[in-house]
Amino acid sequence: MAAERPQAGVPVVIAGAGPVGLMLACELAAAGIATTVLERALEPSAMPKGNGLVGEIAGVLSRRGLLRGQKGLHAFPAPRYSFGALPLRLNPLRPNALRILPMPQRRLEGLLEARARATGVDIRRGHAATAFKDDGGRVLVEVASAAGRYTLDAGFLAGCDGAHSFVRHHLGIDFPGTTGSQLVRIGHVTIPAGAIHRTRNAIELPGGARLALFQANHTAAGSLTVAPVSVLDRGAPKELYIVATQEPLGTQEPAAQISLEEMEASIRRVLGARLPVSGGQWLRSTVANSRLAARYRIGRVFLAGDAAHVFSAGGSSLNTGMLDAVDLASRLAAVLDGSEPLETLEDYHTVRHAAGELALRQTRAQSALSAPGPEAEALRQVLGAAFRSRNPHRYLATLLIGKPARERRA
Ligand SMILES: Cc1cc2nc3c(=O)[nH]c(=O)nc-3n(C[C@H](O)[C@H](O)[C@H](O)COP(=O)(O)OP(=O)(O)OC[C@H]3O[C@@H](n4cnc5c(N)ncnc54)[C@H](O)[C@@H]3O)c2cc1C
Tens digits of per-residue pLDDT, 247-273? Predict the structure, then answer.
């Protein structure tokens, strides 16, 4: 550890000012607890990430008043959604508890950071946690910044420092799971309005091929997802789209930056046809991981968000991670105000690790439903028809009997 005297005590130090670290800081501030948030990056990242929130956290943000006065931002029951490649019709559900809050992750982080700063949170950009020691009564956190190194004396440390978490590595916590076999190429491209025919839920290509918007379009070679950026970000040009292809990984390595030509070639391989794209932005390739930390807590140090779990299907990461933050904040607040003993913090591991396991299971099921190949295609067809039937058990029994079943249309 650094030789100089540690800076005066702060109840909680948070490593990482992503959505999870900022949410934790806001929740603790609301409970009257001071925090210091260390963020390695000098500026918030402009890279587009999440497209919105799905699940309980959407309602939580609404109840915290974070959406008040924010034009176009409100959480509402999803009329439809998808589970892997299976479309879910949620409109008929009474009540329909699945809430969604579409918004770019950058805007979410901006809202949380503004709330955190307004409630007195000390956010230090360009300051990275580089080491720490939990002596049983406090955690000494070593920090590196352009101005030099220093040590913070903290009651607790929360590692909200993302999928490659330094805090998790430093604690030696295992991160077991799987790495996917598909290469996902993703980014923003322009598709000129004159080159396609766009309807509410689809685009049609000159050759007549039809691509559903907002969901994976599967072909023998992989899949292609297309979504207009303006649905999430009203100010975005109408011709700007998020595109994502998925193809077998082979010997390719994921890359932080790929060319427009690589994206275009991937689209052509997947579709067997050309989609006219230009002006690529944020083009990159990635491989999905599905992993869960073996421990969420050791002593006075905790993991939350991507530091604790990464999922292979979209939609659940922010919900699970930000709910980790909500849960951890309430437990830390209770221990810090003396209403609960220190040992109750172990319940954070018990409760949130179980939530992570559940999310891991359902996202793996979604990945299996979205996979390429004849087995996954058969799974999509059979389960899709079973869901549409009045009685899924009878439908599956009919398949086993071998009698052609009369299928209901979606
Ligand atoms: C293309 C893409 C699309 C996605 N879409 C969705 C979606 O639609 N819905 C959804 O729920 N999720 C989505 N996700 C996942 C979502 O973006 C992540 O789950 C989310 O960012 C996790 O938040 P976090 O705060 O845990 O970690 P991060 O956002 O990774 O933040 C961690 C922060 O910690 C900082 N840091 C790292 N190390 C240190 C250190 N040693 N000291 C100080 N700071 C440090 C980093 O700079 C970073 O700012 C998507 C992800 C990607 C890449």
Answer: 998 888 999 999 999 999 999 999 998
CB-based contacts of 366, cutoff 8 Å, min separation 6: 83, 84, 312, 313
CB 131 within 8 Å of CB 81: no
User: DSSP letter string over 312-352?
Assistant: SSTTSHHHHHHHHHHHHHHHHHHHHTTSS-GGGGHHHHHHH
CB distance 167 to ligand 1 below 6 Å: no
pLDDT interval class at 2 (50, 70, 90): very low
Nearest CA to ligand 1 atom 37: 161
CB of 232 shorter than 6 A to ligand 1: no
Degrees, nearest 5: CA angle 382-271-386: 10
| Nearest residue to 224 via CA among 238, 234, 210 | 210
Give per-residue pLDDT as tens, 15-36. Answer: 999 999 999 999 999 999 999 9
CB-based contacts of 49: which residues, under 8 Å, 6+ apart?
105, 106
Q: For residue 303, how far is its CA from the centre of ligand 1 (angstroms)?
A: 13
3-state secondary structure of 71: coil
Contact between 142 and 1 (Cβ < 8 Å): yes
Q: Which structural domains are found in the chain, ordered by start?
A: 7-175+291-363 (3.50.50.60), 181-287 (3.30.70.2450)
How far from each other are the two terminal CA atoms of the chain, in whole angstroms? 62
Distance CA 403, CA 339 (A): 64
Q: Does an H or E element contain 177, and which?
A: strand 177-179
| Interval 125-159: pLDDT, tens | 999 999 999 999 999 999 999 999 999 999 999 99
Smallest CA separation from ligand 1 atom 50, residue: 50
Q: Which of 120, 109, 104 is nearest to 39 (CA)?
A: 109
Look at residues 319, 359, 333 and name the one whose alpha carbon lies nearest to residue 61: 319
User: Probe ligand 1: pick from 47, 49, 245, max atoms within 8 Å of CB?
Assistant: 49
Measured between alpha carbons, how far is 18 from 106 in angstroms, rounded to an integer?
10
Cα–ligand 1 centroid distance for 321 (angstroms): 9
Contacts of 125 (CB under 8 A, 6+ apart): 17, 39, 41, 42, 43
